[in-house]
Specification:
Elements: E1 3-8, E2 25-29, H1 45-50, H2 52-58, E3 62-65, E4 69-70, E5 82-86, H3 93-105, E6 109-114, H4 124-131, E7 144-145, E8 168-172, E9 178-183, H5 198-213, E10 218-221, H6 240-243, H7 266-277, E11 284-288, H8 294-298, E12 308-310, H9 313-316, H10 321-336, E13 343-345, H11 354-357, H12 361-377, E14 381-385, H13 405-409, H14 454-458, H15 464-477, E15 486-489, E16 495-500, E17 505-509, E18 522-525, E19 538-542
Helix pairs in contact: 5-7, 12-15
Length: about 550
């Protein structure tokens, strides 16, 4: 493979002396599916604390905890009824404090989800809003509107909910008559907050300080391109295809002209968040940003807004040299203009697991292993979803086991995200594989996962877990993983290769035949070489 010197990135990010998050490996813990410490079949914070030794062994720099705040769990924690408390399903504040302290003792940062776009319908604010009259201060914290038509029975506009059906629900007033409508871009149990109301920003500031004072190192901001709504809430000429979710990766991935998201006023909200966080040195924020346009994406990580932005292009890319290279180039270009740090992820709690997405079976696993090396070779921050390091596939669950609100709200036409949320297998040969001391788990575990448990993979040098452990260690300690630029190399059709400025070369073979490797000493490969050549669906690191 000869150098393709015409293509390289601009200077886009930090060197080794810059903040910890600029080259960190984050590990996303979906708490209800990670480890159960009390035998009720649902993972909890005690379970996370029990497994910190494993995470230290894996070598990650930081945890990202999906929502653990007080919630009725209509959307598994993303409907928050008290943002300054821990839900009893997961433990309490004392357990959270202990987790933070022990993680810090192990040199692991702790970040957590923040949900500023909406609350639970059982939040005290919304309960008060339902009891109050139209036009009241209580209702002004949310987005209430009169309906259209002579009797107000038509929703205020034609916006749909992400979870199916209209984005509006009509309330019954205190006198028993049909009344106003409230906006919920997600489930009806998740009313959108009115970010034009100063009370909303003040309450979020209290929440930020509450957790930062307890030692939280940062926040993942849910729907970071939401919150701000367009003036007048106008109707939109919806494209039916735009609203179709062809895969779980597109749950929030509609077009950039969607009026529900990416309105200019959102940037003032992020500047307010950043102002608070600047008072706590060493803390960071990363936003969930479903924005396609590179320039508009970059606006979210300007120096006075978010520290990092989730870019989902790599998770959305089909397995192939051209698509993966395009995803990398776009991701780096999106942050280059504002001097930001790129982020990389292959999956999360909303995205079909990469093993399944890349074809399933042995082929899907081989490709997922190869893409793990591609992801970990790139400059910037990497986010690993719990179970990816075990090579877990999605699980095809029976209809009666599905719990994602997408399933019900779509009239059983969209199966939702439960398939990537099945609990982690830790040990043993049968469900629940050490996940819980009880007999049942909140989502059923497959009977054929014995070879995928942590226990089975820890001592197997060829396992996916061992591959991740080795790759993370090399990434953390080898000087070749330095520099914020990459250069692309000329490659055979169906292959790609790039070089970090520190000296690491990463090659990916997305063809169905072995290929020669670039010059250099092989540091690590995702599959055994074939007579010195890189096999199909594999990647290698060279120095």
């Amino acid at each position: 493979m000869s150098t393709d010197g015409a293509v390289s990135t601009a200077e886009i990010g930090p060197e080794a002396t810059d903040p910890w998050w600029t080259n960190a490996v984050f590990y996303q813990v979906y708490p209800r599916s990670f480890s159960d410490s009390n035998g009720d079949g649902v993972g909890d914070l005690g379970g996370v604390r029990d497994r910190l030794g494993y995470l230290e062994l894996l070598g990650v720099d930081a945890l990202w905890l999906s929502p653990v705040m007080r919630s009725p769990m209509a959307d598994h924690g993303y409907d928050v009824s008290d943002p300054r408390d821990i839900d009893r399903l997961f433990g309490d504040l004392a357990v959270m404090d202990g987790l933070i302290a022990e993680a810090h003792d192990r040199k692991i940062k702790v970040t957590m989800d923040l949900v500023p776009n909406h609350t639970s319908s059982r939040h005290p604010w919304f309960v008060a809003a339902l009891a109050a009259a139209p036009g009241s201060p209580e209702r002004a914290r949310y987005i209430f509107r009169d309906g259209l038509g002579e009797d107000g029975s038509v929703p205020p506009n034609n916006w749909p909910s992400i979870f199916g059906g209209p984005a509006w629900t009509r309330v019954t007033e205190s006198d028993g008559t049909p009344g106003q409508w409230y906006l919920h871009i997600f489930a009806r149990e998740q009313p959108d907050l009115n970010w034009d109301n100063p009370e909303v920003a003040e309450d979020l500031e209290r929440t930020l300080r509450f957790w930062l004072e307890r030692g939280i190192d940062g926040f993942r901001i849910d729907v970071a391109h939401g919150m701000a709504k367009p003036e007048g809430l106008p109707d939109h000429d919806w494209d039916t295809n735009e609203l179709m979710r062809n895969s779980d990766t597109e749950l929030l991935g509609s077009g950039d002209d969607d009026p529900r998201f990416n309105n200019p006023g959102v940037h003032a909200i992020h500047r307010g968040i950043r102002a608070v966080m600047n008072e706590y040195p060493g803390t960071m924020s990363v936003g969930e940003i479903w924005v396609r346009d590179n320039e508009r994406f970059g606006e979210y990580i300007r120096p006075d807004e978010l520290h990092l932005g989730f870019n989902f292009r790599l998770a959305e890319a089909e397995f192939g040299a051209e698509t993966v290279r395009a995803a990398i180039e776009h991701s780096m270009a999106a942050v280059a203009a504002v001097g930001g740090t790129p982020t990389w992820t292959l999956s999360n709690h909303d995205v079909e697991r990469e093993v399944t997405r890349y074809g399933g079976g042995r082929v899907g696993l081989d490709r997922a292993r190869g893409m793990a090396l591609v992801e970990l070779a790139l400059p910037g921050a990497t986010f690993i979803y719990n179970g990816a390091e075990l090579g877990l596939p999605n699980t095809d669950l029976p209809d009666d086991a599905l719990q994602d609100p997408v399933w019900e709200r779509s009239g059983h036409t969209e199966r939702g995200r439960d398939g990537c949320r099945v609990p982690i297998p830790w040990e043993g040969t049968a469900p629940p594989y050490g996940f819980t001391a009880g007999s049942d788990t909140w989502l059923p575990m497959p009977p054929d996962w014995a070879p995928l448990t942590v226990e089975a993979q820890l001592e197997d040098l060829e396992s996916t877990l061992s591959l991740y452990r080795t790759a993370i260690e090399l990434r953390s300690h080898r000087p070749e993983f330095s520099g914020t630029e990459i250069d692309w190399y000329g490659s055979p059709p169906g292959c790609l290769a790039f070089r970090r400025r520190g000296g690491l070369t990463c090659a990916l073979n997305a063809t169905d035949a072995p290929i020669p490797l670039p010059p250099g000493e092989v540091l690590l490969s995702s599959a055994p070489l074939v007579d010195g050549a890189l096999p199909p669906n594999a990647a290698a690191w060279l120095v």
